[in-house]
Amino acid sequence: MTSDPAKNTTDDPLGFAQHDHSGCVGDALAAAESYCSAEGLRFTPVRRRVLEILLQDHRAVGAYAILDQLREEGFGSQPPVVYRALDFLVANGLVHKIERLNAFIACAHPSHAHAPAFLICRLCDSVAETHSSPAKGTLGDAAKAAGFLIERTVVEAEGVCPDCADKADT
């Protein structure tokens, strides 16, 4: 996907910060439609609905929770329905898998090529996406020394989000 400097940069974590959520959802859906159109990909009603479900909150959602919602809305009741949609969305950079939670979250920066890092609140399960540079720093140095080329990393940190920390302080 192409970069748009007017949008959030990959250094802006999303999920814990206050923002125009309806604008965030609208922008993400428009970016997905534009990307699929430009690449000649089919953005089917099921794929769109799965992305909409993931955009509802900045929380990771499991495949079966998504399937339950799709079933209620008449999109199908078999796991392949949701897994095919998720595979498409992940492969095209519109959704990320949160390995620790075995769940999925809509990409906060779909118009930027990036290596995301996820900040996961252990109390409320909210997730903020930010940028990482695994090929640089200690991991990059170790890979380079071993003659290893990093192709993909998953960076996930667990802790307490600002809202939960504020509630604990009161």
Explained architecture:
A hairpin with a 4-residue loop joins β1 (95-98) and β2. The protein is globular. The protein has a single domain, classed as Winged helix-like DNA-binding domain superfamily/Winged helix DNA-binding domain (Arc Repressor Mutant, subunit A, Orthogonal Bundle), CATH 1.10.10.10. By secondary structure, the chain is an alpha+beta fold. The strands form two sheets. A three-stranded mixed sheet has the order 4-3-5, with no helix packed on it. The protein contains six helices and five strands; from the N terminus they run ααααββββαβα.
Q: What is shown here, in short?
A:
With 170 residues, the chain is an alpha+beta fold. The chain has helices at residues 21-39, 45-55, 63-72, 79-91, 137-145, 162-169; strands at residues 95-98, 103-106, 116-121, 127-131, 155-159. The protein contains six helices and five strands, in the order ααααββββαβα.
Q: What does the secondary structure layout of this molecule look like, with pairings?
A:
Elements: H1 21-39, H2 45-55, H3 63-72, H4 79-91, E1 95-98, E2 103-106, E3 116-121, E4 127-131, H5 137-145, E5 155-159, H6 162-169
Parallel strand pairs: 3-5
Antiparallel strand pairs: 1-2, 3-4
Helix pairs in contact: 1-2, 2-4, 3-4
